[in-house]
Amino acid sequence: MSTRRTILVAAHFIPYPPAHGVYLRVLKLLKWLHGEGYRVILVMAADSIDANALAELRKVTFAVHWTKPALRTRIGMRFQFLRKMLGETLMRLVHWTKPALRTRIGMRFPFLRKMHRETLKRLLSDRDVGGDHLSQVHRSGLPNIGDYRVKRALCPENLVRLVGKLARKYEASALIAEYVFLTPCFNALPPDTLKLVDTIGVFSQKLEQVLAWGAAAAFACSKEEERGYLLQADAIIAIQSREAKLLRSLVPEREVILVGMDFAVTGNEPANVGNPDSIAVIASDNPLNIHGVRRFLAECWPQIKAAQPAATLHIVGRVGDACQSDDQAIRYSRWIPTLAEVYKDARVIINPAIAGTGLKIKSAEALAHGKPLVAWTNGVEGLDYIGSPPYIECRSWKEFADAVIRLLQSTDEAEKLSARALAYATEVFDVVAVYAPLKVLLEKRLNSKHSTNRQKNRGCRQSVRSA
After folding, report:
1. What is the DSSP letter of 319?
2. Which residue blocks in 197-339 are alpha helix, DSSP H?
3. Looking at the structure, do residues 223 and 312 belong to the same domain, yes or no?
4. What share of the chain has pLDDT > 70, as a percent?
């Protein structure tokens, strides 16, 4: 057996390519764990994975596993001629086979089917591995917040079983669950496995930060529900400082550590402030980003164009699919493998998302590139500073438009803000500083468990000798 400690990381998504901020978060975490010498096992809820993505993920892990479709589905996908050849025959067999008894009763007495349908569905759906807390919340009569089925689907039964199987196969020392909704995986672990949840966001905050702006929030939770998830972990990882405080008040029984994100800083000198007329926004297509970009186009863009007629806007990411415009000054790039050229060209980076939870990763990335950043208060939440601000924080669309116009028209102000952004990023996003709390926690908890296990083994050997 290898002396290297094994850590499982469970996610409901494939984090490569890093098209979303959370994917980048997980990739960076995997890279750090791998660099620290841990055997990192990535476990994902996915039917398949692209060969290129698999190759990239294997560079920062010891092994990569994912939930696969049932054997008959995989055979059908691989040998489609068999599927086509047998399809009609199977359909005829199914057609002529009588339905199950409960189905026939339901067809004959539809009022019974309607009366008991929801109850039966809940009872049947609760018979899976590890879904106890979510099921209890769903049946408890607590306010119906978010979408029970959507949250449940993030951690399917086959993922829970796979995590348990791999924990025993690799003799895992710890499991890091990405998001609270994957905490059912903890129920499949051996009892001495360290259980950590990387929260990434505080979902009970979505009520005030997200729903207030009219955005759909399937993952929103009550405080009672989120507390139940968190209590299943031995320790909790917060991605930004404000959320660390919220989590400590929500679960004072658990240790909460702050682990942000590391970013490579572009250099020690202030960045070139780029094309004096260029604005850029980089975002995925989640509802909050779409809402923010649309409002920016409606509230700010006309003012900016009036003050700076040569201004251009580069919308990068899938958010552009939902924010199309005929304006020739707006350019769209759905996917760019490396964003270095985008940052190099832009005079100003904007984050127009009004609400949301977690660390605003694209805001942090802009600062790491030494770029002048304009954002709403929520867009810089968790990016705490002392002294002069390394970004411009806005509380109205008028402030937002005015700040962008000033930076476009004043090279001096843009250069000074760029210098502050770079100095801030150099200090705050350093890889050693970012992961220091996690390093301490892993060493303390894993060494403690290792010491306890050795004492147990020594006691067993002494008992055998006495016998």
Report:
1. G
2. 206-209, 223-230, 241-250, 287-299, 301-307
3. no
4. 77
Domain-embedded: residue 264: no
Written as one letter, the residue type at 244 is A
DSSP codes of every residue in 352-417 = ------S--HHHHHHHHTT--EEEEGGGGTT---SSS-SSEEESSHHHHHHHHHHHHH-HHHHHHH
In terms of Cα–Cα distance, which of 44, 43, 9, 45 is closest to 28? 9
DSSP 68-124: ---HHHHHHHH-HHHHHHHHHHHHHHHHHSPPPHHHHHHHH-HHHHHHHHHHHHHHH
Write down the residue that tokens 């059912």 correspond to.
Answer: 184
Same structural domain, 42 and 186: yes
CATH of the domain at 402: 3.40.50.2000
The answer to whether residues 383 and 364 touch, using CB atoms and an 8 Å cutoff, is yes
Helices 223-230 and 241-250 sit at what angle, rounded to 10 degrees?
90
Using alpha carbons only, give the angle 354, 356, 360 rounded to the nearest 5 degrees.
90
Can you tell me the distance from the alpha carbon of 267 to that of 24, in angstroms, rounded to the nearest whole number? 21
Residues 382-402 have a mean pLDDT of: 95
The encoded tokens of residue 25 equal 């978060």
Whether residue 385 is contained in a domain is answered as yes
- Give the whole-angstrom CA distance, residue 311 versus residue 301: 9
Write down the pTM of the prediction. Answer: 0.79
Q: Which two tokens stand for residue 415?
A: 């250069």
pLDDT tier, 315 (very low <50, low <70, confident <90, very high otherwise)? very high
pLDDT at 260 over 80: yes
**Residue 260 main-chain phi, psi, to 5 deg:** -80, -140
* 417/317 same-domain check: yes
| Tens-digit pLDDT profile for residues 215-229 | 447 888 889 999 999
Return the amino acid letter for 10.
A
Residue 273 domain-assigned (yes or no): no
